[in-house]
Specification:
Blueprint lengths: L2 H11 L10 H5 L8 H12 L6 H14 L5 H19 L9 H10 L10 E4 L7 E6 L9 E7 L2 E7 L10 E5 L4 E5 L1 E3 L4 E3 L4 H10 L4 E5 L9 E3 L3 H4 L1 H6 L3
Antiparallel strand pairs: 1-2, 2-3, 3-4, 4-8, 5-6, 5-9, 7-8, 9-10
Helix pairs in contact: 1-3, 4-5
């Protein structure tokens, strides 16, 4: 959507909004003058979606919007308004509204077939000309739904991931992988709103996997409490990963 379409939508939403009346005295003061129709309509839009906010938050947003109005560029003003409005989207969002990725859904669906107390890798292989291979193993000593260690070959791309039942709480990408035989300090990537933590794809990720293959367990060290201290059983990995290596040709 281009700039003018966005502005027109905002203006349409601002028509005859009753909440504007209580802020009219503020507009008459120099500190909160809205000197054009575009800025006024954007303010109205903010008020129209802000009924769930407490009164002090409304005032804070008005002050922030007033500061945005001083931007000389229309694009910069709109970006400023967007940044003021963005926290509201975070507040009203719920866990149920976050759509999980297909890789996350596939991993947890596969784990439903696991027998209690079994932590060996479960393996599925679609076969065919472009096989999809999925290996999953749950974290040791955790209550369901447990984090899941995942190795996969999808569209000839090798992936190593940790799927989480609850999202990561920080954005740190630094991670240490310990197997007893190897210590790997690396950086992974938070994906899917923090529910997936993923190694580099392609050759760098393959090289990390190769260093894990002959370990008995994998222990995760991270500044994120959702990840730190996770332990996974690797004892069956050398055999379990064979179809993945064949599918992704390494």
């Amino acid at each position: 959507m281009n700039l003018w379409q966005r502005l027109n939508n905002l203006m349409a939403m601002s028509v005859a909004h009753p909440d504007l009346q209580r802020y009219r005295p503020l507009f008459n003061q120099g500190s909160l003058k809205m000197n054009n129709v575009i800025q006024y309509s954007i303010l109205a839009f903010c008020l129209s979606i802000g009924s769930a906010l407490a009164e002090p938050t409304d005032v804070e947003k008005l002050s922030a919007l007033a500061a945005c109005s001083k931007e000389s560029s229309a694009l910069n003003r709109l970006d400023c308004y967007d940044s003021v409005m963005r926290p509201l989207a975070v507040v009203i969002n719920t866990d149920a509204q976050i759509k999980r990725s297909q890789s996350w859904l596939s991993a947890y669906a596969q784990e439903k077939d696991r027998h209690e107390n079994d932590t060996d890798f479960l393996v599925t292989n679609s076969g065919g000309d472009n096989p999809k291979v999925l290996l999953t193993s749950p974290a040791l000593g955790r209550q369901p739904p447990r984090p899941v260690l995942v190795f996969s070959c999808i569209d000839n791309i090798t992936r190593m991931q940790i799927m989480l039942a609850a999202p990561m709480t920080n954005d740190s990408s630094a991670i240490t992988l310990r197997t007893g035989k190897e210590i790997i300090k690396t950086n992974w990537f938070s994906r899917d709103n923090g529910y997936v933590f993923e190694a580099s794809r392609g050759l760098p990720g393959i090289q990390e996997i190769q260093r894990l293959i002959h370990g008995d367990t994998l222990t995760i060290e991270s500044s994120d409490p959702s990840l730190n201290g996770l332990v996974f059983n690797l004892s069956t990995l050398p055999q379990a990963i064979a179809p993945l290596r064949s599918a992704c040709r390494w």
